[in-house]
Structures are given as C-alpha cells and as structure tokens.
Amino acid sequence: MHAFAHSLEHLLAELERVDLLIRAHVAAFRAAQTEDEQFRGLYVSEQQVDALLAAPLGMPAWLADDAPRRDRLEAHASLAQRTAARKRLALDAGIDLRLERLARLFALSELDVGILLVCLAVELDTRYEKLYAYLQDDVTKTRPSIDLVLSLLEPDPLKRFDVRERFAADAPLRSARLIEVFDDPARPSPPFIGKVARADERIVSFLLGSDRPDARIARCVQISRDAQSLDTLVLDDDTRRGLQGIARAAADGPRMVVHLQGPPGAGKRSIARAVCHERGLPLLVADLERLHADADGSLVAPLDLIAREARLANAALYWNGFDTLLAAERRSALEACLRVAGSAPHPSFLAGETPWLPGSALRGARYVSVTVSRPAVPQRIRLWHLVAEIHRVATPALDLTGIATKFKFTPGQIEASMRTAASLASWRDPQNARVSSQDLYDACRLNSNRTLATLAHKITPRFDWHDIVLPADRVAQLREICNHIKYRNQVFNDWGFDRKLASSKGLTFLFAGPSGTGKTMAAGIIAAELGLDLYKIDLSLVISKFIGETEKNLAHIFDEAETANAILFFDEADSLFGKRSEVKDSHDRYANIEVGYLLQRIEEYEGIAILATNFRRNMDDAFVRRLQFTVDFPLPTEGDRHRMWLSILPEHTPRDPALDLALMARRYNLTGGNIRNVALAAAFLAADDGDMIRMTHLIAATQREYQKMGKLVGDGEFRHAPPPS
C-alpha cells in the first residue's frame, strides 16, 4: 500500500466511496420498484403506498430491505479502510491533502466531509445529476436534497436525525459557507429535508487545487507574501518591542485583534506584513472601502467570504479602510467584521485613521491598539537611505537630509517618490538615468497631496534672490527664514530643542507693507529656495457669512496642507486674523470667537504659513507676538527704484539708448509692482508704434498707472524734454 501522491488523487479516492454508496442505493431503489416504468413519477401506486406505510419513520421505503445493497456497502467499508490508511501515509510524508486541510480548518466531522463529497460529486461529473434524479424519482431534481444525503450517509433512521443537525445554519458546513442550502424552485416552501444542498463554487475550486480568490470578493482582496522583518522597519523602540511581542505570541494563545491607527501611507500595512513575516504567515488584505462600494446590500456575506478566504490561504487578515464601518448605519457590518476578526485563528489587523475602542464587542479576543504616526525627521532620513539602497540609487550627491526635513512624508510616499524620481531621471537622461536631487524634489512635489490645489491657487515661482529689491536687513531676514526650514532637523533633533519646546514646530511669519512692495515675490523666492510648492489661499472660498463656515473652510485647508508639504500664503491676512473688538452684541461675540479659533488653528499648524497684509496695524497684537518672524516691506527709496528700473526690462527688449531710468526713479515714487506695470504698458505702446521703448512710452505708461492709482498730479510731471542732440 502506498501513500496518495497528491491531493487530487486523495479527493478522487474519497469520491469513489461516495460512488459506491450511490451504486448501492440505486440497486436498492431499483429492486423496490413495482409500478409501471412508463408512469413512474406521475402517480402514486397502491404498491408504493403500502411500501411507504411499511417503512420505518425517517427511512425511504426502498431502503427497508437492505439485502440488494449489502454487498456494495461491504465494499464501501473496505475501500474506506484502504483510503484512510493511504491518507495517513501521505500526511506522514508531508503531502498536502486539501480535503483533509479543509476538514481541519473548519472543524469538520467525518459526516460533514461525507455531506460535502455527496454535494461535490455532481460538480465534477454530470452523470450524477441523472443518478440523483433517479434516486429522488424526479428528473428535475438533479442536485441532492437533504433527505437524499441523509439516506446515502446514514442507514440507521434514529441516527439520521442527528445527521440532520449537520445542515443547521450555525453548523460548520453552512456557517463557513462550504455548502449552500436552498429551496427547490419547482417546490415552493418544502420541508427542511426537502431543501436542496449544493457545494460552494470556491470550495470546489479549492479542492481541485486552485488558490484564486472567490470571484465575489476577488476585486477586494489580495495576498501579500513577501515582507521585511520587524528589525528592518524604521520604528521607535517601544513600538518595535510591542510588535515583536505580538509576533511571538503563541499560535494557540488567545485570539488577537490589532488596531493600527494612523494616516494613509504611515506604514500600517508594512507593520502587519512584518508581523506576519515573523510568524511565517501570508497576509490577506481586504479593502473595505471597495467592498462597500461594490456591495449591493448587506456586507455580512462578503465579510464571511473574506474570512473563509483567509482560512483557506492560512493567512492573517488585514482590514484596510476599517473606518468605513464606523458609520452608525453600518453597525451590522461592523459587528460582522469584529465577529470574524475575533474568531480568526491568526492575528487580525484593523487599519484606519480614527482612534477607536471595541468596548465589549471583542469578548474572548485580546485587543491591542498601535498608533502609527508620521515618521519624524530622523526616521525619514533613515527611510530615504533605506529606499535608495533598495532602488540602488547612489546617495552621496543627494540632499536626502534636506528632502527629509522639508517633506513630511510617510514611508509609502517616500517609496513612491523614489520610484517617480527614477522615472524622471530616465526621461531626462535615458543613457545615464542617474537620480539627482532635483529629480527627488520634483518627485516629492508630485507625490504630495494634490487636493490643496482645489482649495487654493498654486503660484509658480519665477524669481530668485537677484530679482528682489529690499534693504539688506530685510533680505537677511528672508534668508534666516529659509535657514529655519533647512536646519530644522539639526536644531530640533540633533541639538535637542525639540524636547524644550511644547508648542507647534510649524513656522508662521508675517509680511507687512504697502501693495506692490514685493511680499508675493518674496514668498515665491522662499518656496523656490526650499523646493516647495506655494499655494495662495483664495479668501473668497474661505470667508463665509454663515456662522461656523469660515472655521470649517479654514480647517479643511489646514488639514489638506498638513499632507501637501507646501507653503500656505494668506494675502490680505488681516481680513482673517484681524484684531478682536469690544463685545457690544452677539455679532461681536461671535466674531471674536471666530478670530480666536483661527489664531489657535494656525498656531497648531505644523507646516509653513506666510501671512501678508497691507495694514499691519489691523492684525491682532497677541497673534503677531506669537509669530517667529515679522518682515516689514517698506516703500522703495530712489536708489531702490533705480535698481528696479534697471532690472525690469528684459535683455532682448529693444530700447532707446537715451532712456533716462535715473530720472524715472527720481521723479516717480512707485513701488516695484507699479514699475512692473509701467514697463509692460510701455512695451505695448512701443510695439504699437513699431518702435523701440523710448522715454515717451515710459512717461505715457506712468501717467496711465497714476490714473489707475487715483493719484492727482500736475501736467508738468508727465512732460519730458528730449536730451540735446
């Protein structure tokens, strides 16, 4: 006697036993038939009535005489012994027998396996459809009824009542959805034993060797087998020790449910995969958001199918998007998910963004909550180096510390950014494809949260330090602002200031000065210097006349900006962050509450925010005191204006050599913004004349700018005597 060579050989041997049972019952049924073959099934004969009355309760009349099938039943018993012996040999040899594994996974008894095999036979060979119809005396009944299954598997009428319980809804076969019990369409409201049993399609394919997920949930699940170990993950020591304890927990210990709470991309799935790697388990990831979107009705059945799939794969379960189930109207789905998670043989991971406690919903299971935060700068630096090593990117020439400091990325975003940078490098230089710091900065901006673009206007920086004209002290202040971002990691982490400061580590500063003095330009220069995007907040989308809406809109902007890795630019900030007034009525009281909320929210903001105002005196004094920087943008002096005039005209612009830009700077007290407008208007006047830019064009354009500004000037200010020839 030899062992089964593979799982399918064992399955066919077990089905051979079922085939012998069917043959024995066909012989008994045939021997008991006395009515005319031509009219069988169309009427009940007198002989049939007598046979039915003579049969014991719970036994078909054709089984009352055991003689016609006795020989085949003896052959069945002999075959069962040989099959059991060969099965033991195969298991001892380490051969995976899927039917045996299924019985072990779902605690199936020998009778349960027999029921499943009777239902399975018709799924593998259609001749059993006719045989089942014959035994049930009805050509339309091509699947076994519960009554037929009982007759095939248990000859003792009294014991048959016990077998009937194996079809109960909470019995293993049906609770695990291995078989389905349904009404015969041709027989409405039949008795329970008249219902039809059918093997589940996924179970059939599993027994035949398929590991493809159930088609009903295939879009919502995926198996993850390759993972890093816990030692290679970038984690703080306390979190690592706790996860190692989960990984080392005995398999026969209490059920374990781990809630991983943190922002998207923070590494929750990597943590679950690493824990499973330590335990030698694959991880089945279930997407609850997609499952909810695809479901036509209740989620209970799909959740049960996912749990069954995890058992078939011997995998731990990872419920991605767990927050989807926390809505009040999805309470039944939440209870079903927790029931599945709490009864799973391996750890179940609930992954979401919202803090949550199970209360009494997980009785009998150990609940562990793990907060997965965005990595701090030192962790991000390690992650960048680790990902660069994985992608074989040379790091000595890369500004990884600067990138880690400026972009508060999750592990997932760092991985995506490195892949994007490699693609950008290949596009830029297909032959070399060496990733540069610029490729990384561009990739990081592409992988930042783009939702902010729907709430604010993105400003593309077009200027550098050579373009801005300010007093030397103001330029120094702007450079100091950049240094605060560049050296955050060194000061806060390496030098320990992070432990000394309880307030937010964000950076908020004020640009104050008349319109056109360079506030927006300075913001763009800072963004370009740091390699960050600049978003100008549209106040029309923020300020609302309805109570509470302004705060809600601003909160939405700050929430999105936290993950956008961008600089927020609030122009005319005094309209939002203005002084609080004396309370005279309810409107004043609410206005002060609104301002107070806004001040608190921007103080808590961890990113970079620039507030610009034309009227510094309108800003709330208490708020201004909390700002890290305040930069005053003065009106330009004559020397400043002259420098602006010299730099404003592009190199390729045709101009009269006699242009007296010193005169323009001396005579007209304009800001940088006004000078830009005048130069552009003069260029269009010259183009219309088909000529180069002359003094007449500059002075005419200046007059239009003064009129636009509403300034009253004498006619003599706009006369120009040409230079003597």
UniProtKB/TrEMBL annotation:
InterPro entries: 26S_Proteasome_ATPase, AAA+_ATPase, ATPase_AAA_core, P-loop_NTPase, WHD. GO terms for molecular function: ATP binding; ATP hydrolysis activity. It comes from Caballeronia glathei. This is AAA+ ATPase domain-containing protein. Pfam families: AAA, WHD. Keywords: ATP-binding, Nucleotide-binding. It comes from the Bacteria. The keyword Acyltransferase does not apply.
